[in-house]
Please model this.
Amino acid sequence: MNEKFFDLKKEKQDRMINAALKYFGENGYKRASTDDMVREAGISKGLLFHYFGSKSGLYFFICDYSVRYLMLELTRVVSIKETDYFEVIKQIEYGKMQIMRTYPYLTGFLDKVVTEKEEEAVEVVKELKTKYEDYMETILIRIREKGYKQGIDSEKLHNIVDFTLRGIYDEFLKQGCENPDIFYGTLVEYVDMIKKMTEK
Model:
């Protein structure tokens, strides 16, 4: 990547980053169009490739940037002292909500990276994907068995919470990524409801 990308005005950087996050996140690596990205960002295709070299170079940069940004934000908001599973989930989602103020498509993009099957893309971000998954696991593993009734399958419970939050996130995107605070409030309502159903 051309390091001069970071010499651009922040507003232009963010337009380019958000356009890539949106189309890679919505369509996956193979179907994502750089033509759509440059049109959304309001730049020339030549400029995009000047900074990133290729589609795979752009994909690597966006993944690296997203993982770093998410980890930084979650490190700031997730308390290592909190032991209740549902409270940690809310802290994670609060961090994501803060990210969405600037990069509304970032978390959706990372979800897509985890399930990406295109060989070229998988190879390009293999280490970053592992880094992201390992980081998220370190947050959750210490509280997976805490905060709810004995006998509840922790993996299935986490899947229920995950599927619920993804559904709310998808609805947020459909509504144009407006009102992240209302979005977060909805998430909290659902998490609290699930907690009440499962708490000790």
Notes: The radius of gyration is 18 Å. The chain has a mean pLDDT of 90. The chain has one domain: 3-198.
